[in-house]
What does this fold into?
Amino acid sequence: MAALVGRPALKNGIAAAVRRHFNTTAAVAGKQMAVRDAINMAMDEEIERDERVFLLGEEVAQYDGAYKVSRGLWKKYGDKRIIDTPITEMGFTGLATGAAMAGLRPICEFMSFNFSMQAIDQVVNSAAKTYYMSAGRVPVPIVFRGANGSSAGVGAQHSQCFGAWYSSVPGLKVISPYSAEDCKGLLKSAIRDNDPVVFLEHELMYGVSMEMSDEALSKDFLIPIGKAKIERAGQHVTLVAHSKPVGLCLEAAKELEGMGIDAEVLNLRTLRPLDHEAIIQSVMKTHHLVTVEGGWVQCGIGAEICALIMESAAFDYLDAPATRVTGADVPMPYAKILEDNALPQVHNIIQSVKKVLNK
It folds into this structure.
């Protein structure tokens, strides 16, 4: 029942919550593009390119999506390709999964990934496992996408990161993009992929405008799934993050530079498969590791990365124990001051870097 509680209020509060934290301009002068518009562009191009691709979910059509991510697509493609569904995640997720098994390529939107818990049997037991259980005879080319991670002032049932949950499941590919370019290139790759993909968009990033290169604006722009990106090269410590915390790491790296500390920021982009090689090479170069994520500490992405380093040749290169910066080990509080303290902040990253460098 959690997914049904307060849903109208949640929808009406989404725009206000995003406006409080970020610029919501759709696109500004130059080669800047809001994250929501990069996602919209990717879906538009792939729906146009392949008649098997369609989008379904709650209010994705006439309402243009709860976050306006699908703005204009229903008017362009109509009811056959952009489909509004009832508020029943298990129902429309099962429908989409069956459509993928029958040869179509659905994009299944969750208004929030918190609501995907209503449909986790379809995602995990049907979509993720069917290719294996059919001995490769039944591929399931589907993308499950929508808002993930912390929101602003919507309480514990709408502010969780599901990266660790879904990336623990064999048969799924899990993407957690940071930038507008990440979103466009990786979503297009996800839609074309023959495996089920969970695409985790951060709720508070939709209105953030970022640089888009000429290459990224091309209809042929793809980013390979499973490849991390060095957002900032450095020599003294590796900061590994995904989604919105990548931005926090970049902010922290700027402050650390003024302290004489050169931090490397690695944007994972994909959580399953993890780019082991990129993580290991970076740690072998810097000899220090701090992981940053918005999810909980236990069984998190940072824990997986630390285990990876322990079991690899990079362990012998560490000059100090790895440190994790995570969300607090509590359900998300509603009060803003508590909410802020339950999420990683720039000063937490800086403090952790000083700790591993013994400064």
